[in-house]
Batch of 2 targets.
Target 1
Amino acid sequence: MFASPPRFCAMAAATTPWLWAACLVLTLAGLYIGFAVAPTDATQGESYRIIYIHVPAAWMSMILYVAMAFWAAVGWAFNARMGSLLAHALAPTGAMFTFVALWTGALWGRPTWGTWWVWDARLTSELVLLFLYLGYIALRAAIDDEQRADKASALLAIVGVVNVPIIYFSVRWWNTLHQGASVSLTAAPRMAQIMLTGMLVMTFACWAYAFAAVFTRARGYALERDAGAAWVHEHLETHAKERA
Amino acid sequence: MQGLPDWITLGGHGLYVWGSYAVTLVAMLVDAWSARRAVQQQRDRLEEDPT
């Protein structure tokens, strides 16, 4: 499915409406838990409620970068068009989540730390991630030849993936103002169960959003790259009828 | 701010909390619009030149 543009586009067109719907339902459920059910935090007060979007956005920013580097590497190593297209489609959504993580972090830092920004390892490495996404997008846009753009941007994506473990482990490796991880795969969560539930529901909402946005964008890129092919006409006609 | 429900003012941190969700909403809408535009452009192109 991920090797054949016609099959990918058919799958994306069929699943995307359900993914948008799942995103909406999960977001409403997550916000209800986060704002109506979860209590006020004993130390941070009400400002902690920013975590219901800040933490999922930060997780997604790292996960989407790894996914982008993976698909860019697949596209490069196997000369697989869909791999490069998926990497290309992941970049704007990954950049968006990184932007959201940085902004919501600043809006949480002001009332909690008393400052919008500090040049500590976690914040700085997350900012570097945003520059990597923007660099990837700019590099692709600067090269007219599609295949050369795929290869050059894949190299940047693969080299840049080294920044992801730096972001994740920065709070352990260096003495940062940013707090350590409250949720880990290897230890019990250091937060109330209901707060964790709200955060995880919002994380699933972000996953649904990311799949919907990336599938939609990748579909557009695949249709553009194969413009003129018979399957593109059939696909657009089929889905024009569905819309009507 | 006095008189507004507590869940809007959020103990004086409402601007930061709601600001965070507003920034997120705008960023997601822009991203979703740009994704949808990628498909819409191909649809428009086909309508202009069906060959």
Note: The mean pLDDT of chain B is 85.
Target 2
Amino acid sequence: MFLTIDTTDARPIYQQVADGIKALIAHGKLLEGAPLPPLRQLAGDLGVNLNTIATAYKTLQEAGLIVVRHGSGAVVASQTSVERSEEELVRPLRAALTDLILAGLSTEKIARIVMRELKLAKESK
Amino acid sequence: MILPTQDWFIIVLYAMFWPIRINGCVRRGRQPLLRGRDWFFDVRVQDGFYEGPGRTILRQYWLRMLIPFAADVPWAIWIFETGRLFQLNFLVVVVSAVIHVNHLLSKGIAERQAQAYAVPESTQPAARIVLSLAPRRLRDYTTPRFEVALAAVSLASLAWLTHYYLTSPLHPGARLVFGFPLYLLYTQVGLLIVKRAVIGWPSPVPLDHADEHMHAAEERRRYYVKFWDWWRAGSVSSLVIWPLLIALPRPTADRVMTAWLAAWIVLSVVATVIVEIKRKRIANLDALARPVALPDLRAADGPAWPVCYEPSAPALMLRSARGYSLNFGNGVAQTSAVYIAGFALLIFALTHMAP
């Protein structure tokens, strides 16, 4: 079970960690009850501050995907995040689509990209 | 009780320490060239490096390997002159630690020197790194049965010694009965600290050939965990034999001790051969995984000194302006510092207590 961090990615490290774990849960690679590395291990491995990883875990906890138990570490709580409105779920997609439009991609190309990514996400699950 | 057989054993062990050290020097001496003449340790060097500046850097690295001998030889001469042969045990422990620290520092210096002659593109850190999400806690690398057996045997031995000390009218002094077991138990704690450090050692790897890198890192970790576990088992086995040596009549105790020490020597030779074979396998795995510079993801500037206190950054070693800095904000560094101070106190107490 690997997590990839890209230094050229514009997202901050904590976001990459949270998104990476989220993707592994979504793809069924991290099942309910699976233990996650302790904060200190992850921060030590990446050579970052504890707060960076604590923020990533907090984001995942708020989404209901993990449970952090004091002393025994974090475990995957659920395969699905907490109930959120459609409007809330669509917001990041809308932002990503805006980026693609601003990058000058045609509507057909954007549609192809979205379909390809959706297919990939479903296949890996 | 200093049995006469003990002296020859300590001398034999110390004598065995020398070929092992020389073999270690040969092994470490070859390490810079393990990946071929295009490399100096993990630095990809330019053509002709070993014909030019590399020759000096390599020679200085080889010379620095002799530093531990400079500490060891005068100490050993003093021990033999004063007849305090038991201290050879401490000498072996301390010099072993010095050898490893010296190697780490010396390797760092040599690699930094070689960086000036590195192939330019090879010095660029990898943009993408991969790390394992498998938890690495002490319990993940612990066999409960093994630990229970070690604890039970140690407790039984101590209980018997206490009972013997309190009830036997002819018992020897407290230092003799409990000194050696205390030393062994303290060594156990030290080996557990080392084991914890091995398990916690970070192992992020570049995205390219991530599987090979990750496999090599995990194999190396498991090898060292097993190595230190066997050391602990050996230490506990000495704790078992101690009550026998204390309680048996002198001639019988001498015979038991001679047999025991002879078995130890044979086992040590066999173990050394096995360790060397496994070490070679790990080195081959390491050579397969091509080294890549990893990025520094910390936003803050690195510490300026070889030691620092950064509790918010849990890594044991932090990147600094001059290589790496030992972080005393890390639990292993703190425990090790307390342990070393405690070790010095224990040795002082054992050597100054009434027998």
Note: Chain A has five helices and three strands.
